[in-house]
Amino acid sequence: MSREKVVILDFGGQYTQLLARRIRELHVYSEILPHNTRAEQVRAQQPQALIFAGCAGSVDDEDAPGVDPAMYELGIPLLGICYGMQLMAKDLGGTVRGAGRRELRKTVLDVRKTDGLFAGLKREITVRLSHGDFVSTVPPGFAVSASAPNLPVAAMEDTGRQFYAVQFHPEVEYSPHGKAMLQNFLYKAAGLAVNWSVASFIEDTVRQIRETVTGEAQAVCGLSGGVDSSVAAVMVHKAIGDRLHCIFVDHGLLRKNEAKQVLSVFRDRLRMKVTAVDAAEHFLGKLAGVYDPEEKRKIIGAEFIRVFEREAAKIGKADYLVQGTVYPDVIESGTAAGAVIKSHHNVGGLPEDLNFKLVEPLRYLFKDEVRLVGEELGLPEEIVWRHPFPGPGLAVRVLGEVTREKLEIVRAADAILLEEIKAAGLYRDIWQAFAVLPDIRSVGVTRDRRTYAYTVALRAVTGQDAMTADWYRFPHDLLAKISARIVKEVPRVNRVVYDITTKPPATIEWE
Ligand code: XMP
Fold it and tell me: Which of 141, 444, 479, 507 has its CA 20 to 30 A from that of 494?
């Protein structure tokens, strides 16, 4: 049985993923496909509805993204948003004109039809219209369902074919009635049932994995202890049991007790097959004498892949590689239509040409949804709520050359910081908190004796996505306690500073 769903065609607009999320919040499963997907491929997915998302371009641009004309023949309800509306108008025989300006204006709509998308809403609703182009004549079969001053067609619909289109974005925060419109489209027009829940997502995904990784096929997974790879691994384990082999590479750059804790959760508690590789000496050797941050990253990335491949080969023939790719990773690496927003520095990840078929059960989830899935799967809190940790680990938090001594210092300080944050009940309020060891020493005094020792920097940030971040406003007493503990308990440290820089211009990590 295939899962009921909506397919969203992506034209590279900035709100596409938000739209997918809004739909999921209405408990309907949605999947995003590039706008140039063939109609046959969409049909094969058996969606109950189709949405053309918006984008900033104009349908008259030379390279304007379009759709397979057969998309209009799928016989399922269609919603066009902004650019999607203009594309529908153009493709179906209406006309689109340029307004010459592209500002976003708060506008009161005059709703003319209250039985379709606007059912249950007032006749006057406020939206923000946000596009330069507009539909000047609706295509045959369509009626104007809302208009606005200076805008004859703010929304249109063809109730016979169940085609709807709006000039504004119902998914964005400043469209207060947008949710009701999406509900009307999903539940009433498309007859979709409220059936997306974390439990049903797990059930469906596990079934799909079982149908993909069949027979004796084996899968490998690089387990890091991070929430994404952990949840992905547990999900795949639920589907194929011991045909999943996890590989945990300890590069010696992990936090205090991290390796032990990850193994105890996955091996002892969840009874999963995990090969642990203690490669600490190897990595330290490779990093000796290396000061440049990018050089460190490159070395760690390359070694990680080498170690992983060697271990995977020992397992025998594995066709599948499980990856904890989440939706923001998909967005960040760019979609067919979208610009590359951020070239992701996923060091500690694996390259695509490893000759495996990928299993990415979390590909369409946002981080908070991954956490909900993790909780539902029974993963312990310390995994589900773990702060993100970079692939190159403490190597990017020990500035300059990475040595055993410096790793010990940063690890001990980090453990104190995290322990105190957890004890104060603040761990979940913070996106990421950690200690850094800048390559500086300064003069201090301990029990009347002069010291010349390391400075530890603390970093704690809040944010949604690591693209931007603000420094966390700790209560001063807590900072005082953390600082006092670090200088007392961590040898060779006589000074603690707190990083109060936002991102940008600083990054979250120091290297
Ligand atoms: P920055 O320091 O760029 O970090 O503000 C943003 C987020 O990415 C993490 N990060 C990395 N993750 N490999 C990773 O897997 C890396 O090389 C890397 N560098 C930074 C960082 O911890 C933060 O969450």
Answer: 507
- Which domain range does residue 127 map to? 5-189
pLDDT more than 70, % of the chain: 93
| 158-172, 323-337, 370-384: segment of lowest average pLDDT | 323-337
CA dihedral 24, 199, 3, 9 (to 10 degrees): 30
Q: Which amino acid is at 114?
A: T
Instruction: Look up the pTM and report it.
Output: 0.77
The rounded distance, in Å, linking the Cα atoms of 48 and 37 is 17
Confidence of residue 102 (pLDDT cuts 50, 70, 90): low
Residue 104 and residue 134 in one domain: yes
Is 329 a pocket residue for ligand 1 (Cβ < 6 Å)? no
Residue in 35, 131, 169, 251 annotated catalytic: 169
State which ligand 1 atom lies nearest to the alpha carbon of 503.
Answer: 5
Q: Please, what is the angle between helix 198-212 and helix 227-240, to 10°?
A: 60
Reading the block at residue 4, the tokens are 């009921």
Last residue of a domain, one of 357, 384, 411: 384
Task: Indicate whether 351 pLDDT > 70.
Answer: no
E strands, 99-148, in order: 105-111, 124-129, 133-137, 143-148
Residue of 199, 277, 278, 274 whose CA lies nearest to 233: 274
Question: What pLDDT, on a 0 to 100 scale, did the predictor assign at position 263?
Answer: 97
Q: Is 204 in the same domain as 136?
A: no
346 CB within 6 A, ligand 1? yes
Confidence of residue 15 (pLDDT cuts 50, 70, 90): confident
Look up 246 and say whether it is catalytic: no
The pair of three-digit structure tokens given for residue 148, joined into one six-digit string: 């606005």
Identify the active-site residue in 35, 55, 131, 171: 171
Q: What is the pLDDT of residues 381-426, one digit of tens each?
A: 999 999 999 999 999 999 999 999 999 999 999 999 999 999 999 9
Confirm if 69 and 104 have CB atoms less than 8 A apart. Answer: no
Q: Has 177 been annotated as catalytic?
A: no
Q: How many residues does the chain have?
A: 511
Beta bridge partners of 31: 7
For helices 280-287 and 293-315, angle between their N-to-C axes, nearest 10 degrees:
150
C-alpha to C-alpha distance for 325 and 365, rounded to whole angstroms: 9
Report d(CA 186, CA 393) in Å as an integer.
44
List beta partners, residue 249. Answer: 277
Question: Virtual CA dihedral for 81, 34, 172, 137, nearest 10 degrees?
Answer: -10
**Which of 158, 189, 220 delimits the end of a domain?**
189
Same-domain check for residues 339 and 458: no
Q: What is the mean pLDDT of residues 477-492?
A: 98
The yes-or-no answer on residue 82 being catalytic is yes
pLDDT band of residue 21 (cuts 50, 70, 90) is: confident
Give the integer Cα–Cα distance in Å for 359 and 219.
9
CA of 343 to the centre of ligand 1 (A): 12
